[in-house]
Amino acid sequence: MPSIHQWILTGCLATLIATAHAQPLKIEAPLPEPAGTAPAPLPSLPQLVALALTYDSGLQSQRLDSQSMAQEVPMAQAGLRPRLDATAAYRYTDADNIYTDNPDDYPDEVYDDRVSGRTRDTSWELRMTQPLFSLERWRRVGKARAQMDAAALQVAVAERDLAVKVVETYLDAYQASRKLGLLIAQRESLVLQQRQAQRAYDLGIGDRINLLESQSRLDQAVADQTSAENDLTNALSDLERLTGVSLPFDPVLVDTPENLNIAPESRPLESWLSLSRNNVQVRLAAERQRVADRDTDVRRASRYPELNLVVGYSDVDSSDALRTSNDLSASVEMNLPIYQGGYTTASIRQGELTARASAASTENERRLAQQEVRKRLLSMQGDLRQLEALQRSVESGSLFLQAAIRGESLGLRDLVDVLDARSSLYDLRIRFIETLCLYLEDRTYLQATTDQLDTSTLAEVASILERVERIAPSDDV
Predict the structure, then answer these.
(1) What is the CATH number of domain 34-72+138-175+223-296+347-468?
(2) pLDDT for 2 beyond 70
(3) What is the pTM of this model?
(4) What is the DSSP letter of 451?
(5) pLDDT value at position 128?
(6) What does each C-alpha distance from 122 to 85, 86, 127, 320, 326 come to in angstroms?
(7) Which ranges in 25-102 belong to alpha helices (H)?
């Protein structure tokens, strides 16, 4: 025969079940937006990249450096053109010579100043020098042009890196904002779960383990939400620094589409590798190698003689009448360095080693580009497989949530099971958003490595994100 304690416990359970069915807990939408309203449109990614290309101070510095380097060409060409110098001088001389030592031998008045040994001269001179042959100066022009081309490629690399950085930061902001919206909703569900566990524990039909577990999960959700808020703040700060505008990325509760249908890359691996072999980074390294080769040629040319035509005119006005003169001269001068203490040999050797290092750097950049292509393609394939699996998991999780809701209405399951299913569905959606952003980031890096990153590819990234932008219906959140 059942004891009195069993009858009392049975009565308490019946009362609790009747109370739960009479006053069910209502789970409201965790976000203030009403169901069915569309989220705020995403900022235009191509426009943000265009803004960054005109706003970023680092890129502006690169462009000014490129313009500065371009002036090396006219500076080098100036060495092949005539050079005209003008000089003026005033000279006072107090000398001992044959005139001052023998003044009696030069009694004429014309020699008075010369015999005294003290003269004052005023002179000016024009001197024009025209190089007739200078191998070193000719080769400096080639080096300057290579430096100008390398500086232009450096700007192109900086523009590409800036565009990639904007896309990466944009995806970080998008991921953090959508993750934050899901975490807010998840936290609200966990709050209700914790209240239900607390109520069951207070009534004596729940245990302390379930209560502590629900509180632990709630605390973890709060921590995850705080982390997502920090990530969103940092990403928005970086975007504002890059573009100069403050962007709205409010937390939005989005649903994952049933079938995103992202087509895998149809281009074969060899095609991508061929594009990467001559990308802008590799071309920059090759141009720097050309600069090093031209510099070595300039150093070698310093061993050759220089031939110059020199035309001069001078006018000297002196207190000594014999020193006053007007002179016009023309000469051909050759300059040949014979020995400089081993400097020329060491300089040439240094240039050759620099050129070899630049060649190795070019090959290294080419290998890095090919490795980046392989890595990004493999990562994209894995991302797509993971997205497909997550879509199936989300679909299964949605069905499980509906079954849990129906089971709770029939008394076969309790509210804790419903909230567990709902929380798991949030986790799956968060993983889906994270994987999608990872795929788009890999795709951006692949296109940047192969010089395919342009307005159309940026628009494709934005269009994929727009296909995900759907507020989840209130019955399956």
Answers:
(1) 1.20.1600.10
(2) no
(3) 0.80
(4) T
(5) 95
(6) 17, 14, 17, 11, 12
(7) 45-55, 57-70, 72-78, 98-101
